User: Fold this.
Amino acid sequence: MEDIENIELAYLNLKDYQELKQAMIESYTTMPDSIWKEEQIKTLIHKFPEGQAVIKVNNQIAGCALSIIVDYDKFEYNHTYEQITGNYTFSTHTNDGDIIYGIDVFIKPEFRGLRLGRRLYDYRKDLCERLNLKGLAFGGRIPNFHKYADTLSPKEYIDKVRRKEIHDPVLNFQISNDFHPARILTNYLEGDASSHEYAVLLEWDNIYYEKKNKLATTIKKIVRLGLVQWQMRPYKSLDDVMEQAEFFIDAVSGYRSDFALFPEFFNAPLMAENNHLSTPEAIRELAKHTAEMVQRFSKLAISYNINIITGSMPEMVDGKLHNAGYLCRRDGTMERYEKLHVTPDEAKVWGMVGGNQIVAFDTDCGKIGILICYDVEFPELSRILADEGMDILFVPFLTDTQNGFSRVRHCAQARAIENECYVAIAGSVGNLPKVQNMDIQFAQSMVFTPCDFAFPTNGVKAEATQNSEMILIADVDIDLLRELNQFGSVRNLKDRRLDLFELRKK
Assistant:
């Protein structure tokens, strides 16, 4: 091979056909009848010019990738090459399709070993992202299968290739380029004796794909979080509490935040007016304010154009005391969430009971989960939310001592790592000497990230000052989570041994 002076990726041009034909002849020595005719190449270029790419070395064709766009749902999962290409006429191509289907990829023998095929596949991936399609697919030959056909089934053969026990040049290459086997295709390519006419349906998912939406709204990629580190202080009335809450909402919305997160039991100072009652009675009196506070928060969410997570408040349901909060969306809708694990203190002192519902919520910034304080110390809950598509976990908390805070803090960070999500925690600070069972508070509000190269090395996106009233504003990039899931140095969600265990809601 002569010295390389330049490598160029370009669209295939019909005037290059004779050179392309010679390249195909040299590449397909075992399949001499697999040469595309000039009229077929002309059709491909006419239908989908961006899908036909060549790579040139020193201005001569070294390789080529041919593709079409198909409506994947219109084809049987076990299709043949002839069917997917419309009997080689490419009538199956449609600009309204959702998958780029690879028709052909080849590299001339003299240029193999330069990773030129990887460049062609990377081009297809970039094209798929640019056109907002679901992904790539193609039928991959298994040319070494004939050596093992007497002793191995196609499935067993593929398993051994994946475990590096058998080398298959085509399949090994595809897997190394992030394609995953979806199923075995039978009678795929007529005359492919070395593969016994089997092929592997290989797929690559576009993690940036967005389903086309007819509404004038889009899911945000950069989400701004506003955390309220609330100072406990005496309040004379509900109006005083909500005036302070509106102050913070005004502040975080002024920075164009998408979410405002309040702490657990931030309204506890109102219990001071019921000091003459027993502690269980006092908190039940506090619960009488919850419905009005929720309605006020909903109006504030609309007027300030921000999604508000109300922390948590005591709430009576069917005669039982719960610890619950509300997601007040900026479109006026609301969702209720509840604390599932009450602490021993909450059960003993207040007679509080745990809730029964765990669900991820849809928002205009993607799916979120909300766990109240102690709940974040149970990894099963956040894993269920992750399985439902959660991108951000919000944790309103209330801790009195540094050890209690440390449990919440370290468990929250663990949840970010193991579930490949962002976790935002917000707590209260200060003292309430005249409120029983709410004497002191210790908090440091924080935003955690997974620990990989795209994120801070310590996994902390932002942190407030300990025990100081303030707001914390932080931007989180949702696309980075998609990249982590597919290409991270470790892949906590994908690498779970689901063959050994499962987690499900009852």
Observations:
- The two ends are 64 Å apart (CA to CA).
- The chain has a mean pLDDT of 91.
